[in-house]
Write a structure and sequence with these properties.
The protein is an alpha/beta fold and 340 residues long. It folds into 2 domains: 150 residues, NAD(P)-binding Rossmann-like Domain (Rossmann fold); 168 residues, Dihydrodipicolinate Reductase, domain 2, CATH 3.30.360. It contains 11 helices and 15 strands. The strands form 2 sheets. A 9-stranded mixed β-sheet has the order 14-13-12-11-7-10-9-8-15. It has a 6-stranded parallel β-sheet with strand order 3-2-1-4-5-6, with helices on both faces. 33% of the residues lie in helices and 28% in strands.
């Protein structure tokens, strides 16, 4: 049994707690928060953009800590699940690794590549796993694409376009704060760069155009330059939509023997075949909490085996962060920027 300690009880901490009730061979054994109301089970302020309406949570049988040091001193905790603000990820994860715990840290891994590097080095020195919770590959439509590209059932990925656009959320003032989250071009768009890196690897260069809101890039469109042979991939992402359409993501991807199309809210995942026929594959649960449960289950299985799943790779998460930051640089200088 893998015993999980969740650090940070905001929206994402609540989602991880709910997902933790759906695991095999693991349980949420402890939570850590400075907020006494949350430790008493009042999670009514943890509203987000999906999931059930927040309210009271039954924490009977769950240890409750007010400081990270107290939780890390608990020898019964095997895996620290870091759900506090991104600006705190590095210090929290490194402390947990040094204490002998495996770590699952919510995206983004850190705000700067140097911080991510220190986290990776700490994991290596401690002989523990640093896994990064990028949930997108666990959503049914994206899981299908990942597996299809990996096993080659439709041939090679040739090109395509992704999009992820939201209205500026009234439940998260920090998404526009580059110092706290990196802004939409990091906090939101890193889902896309992680998935693109998972499918096609890190490009040689990126070229982006976009909009800035103070220090943050609020919207961008990027071409990922892999060089001759491609793939030819692009993505549009940001927080510029009106509240009548608070969220949309999707893709249109071209493979040698099929086109894969999906847009949330309008177009179920559809496979378009060369003979003119199309099909909508049967997928798993569309409940986002189930996707988070699958993600955390993968981390639990990694902690049990001592081997991190590729999809939760700290290095892949670090690469995704670098891609976002280079795209922001390209928006600002109007030039293609090398990924180094």
């Amino acid at each position: 049994m893998i015993r999980i300690g969740i650090v940070g009880i905001g929206f994402m901490g609540r989602i991880h707690f709910l997902a933790g009730q759906r695991l095999d061979g693991a349980k949420v054994a402890a939570v850590c928060s400075r907020d006494q109301k949350k430790l008493a089970g009042d999670w009514s302020t943890t509203r987000g953009n999906f999931g059930p309406e927040p309210g009271r949570v039954d924490l009977s049988g769950v240890k409750r800590y007010t400081t990270l040091d107290e939780m890390l001193a608990d020898r019964d905790i095997d895996l620290i699940d870091v759900c506090n603000p991104t600006v705190n990820h590095e210090a929290t994860a490194i402390a947990a690794l040094k204490s002998g715990k495996h770590v699952l840290v919510e995206k983004a891994i850190a705000l700067a590549p140097e911080g991510a590097d220190r986290m990776l080095a700490a994991a290596k020195a401690a002989g523990k796993l640093l896994m990064v919770a990028h949930v997108l590959p666990f959503f049914p439509e994206f899981d299908f694409v990942h597996k299809a590209v990996r096993d080659g059932r439709y041939g090679k990925l040739l090109g395509g376009h992704f999009k992820r656009v939201i209205s500026k959320p009234d439940w998260s003032a920090e998404i526009g704060d580059a110092a706290a989250t990196g802004g939409p071009a990091v906090d939101l768009h890193i889902h896309d760069t992680h998935f693109i890196g998972l499918l096609a690897g890190v490009p040689k260069q990126v070229f982006s155009t976009g909009l800035q809101d103070g220090a943050a890039v609020s919207y961008l469109t990027t071409q990922y330059l892999y060089g001759p042979g491609g793939p030819a991939l692009s993505c549009s992402s940001g927080a510029v939509a009106m509240k009548a359409r608070p969220f949309v993501h999707g893709f249109e991807l071209y493979l040698e023997r099929a086109t894969l199309v999906h847009e949330s809210g309008s177009t179920p995942l559809t496979v378009l075949h060369a003979d003119g026929k199309s099909e909508q594959p049967k997928l798993g649960s569309g409940d986002p909490v189930d996707s988070f449960a699958s993600e955390i289950q993968a981390a639990v299985d990694g902690a049990s085996s001592g081997k991190s799943p590729d999809v939760l790779s700290g290095q892949l998460a670090r690469d995704a962060l670098v891609m976002c930051l280079r795209e922001c640089e390209s928006v600002r200088n109007g030039k293609a920027v090398a990924i180094a």
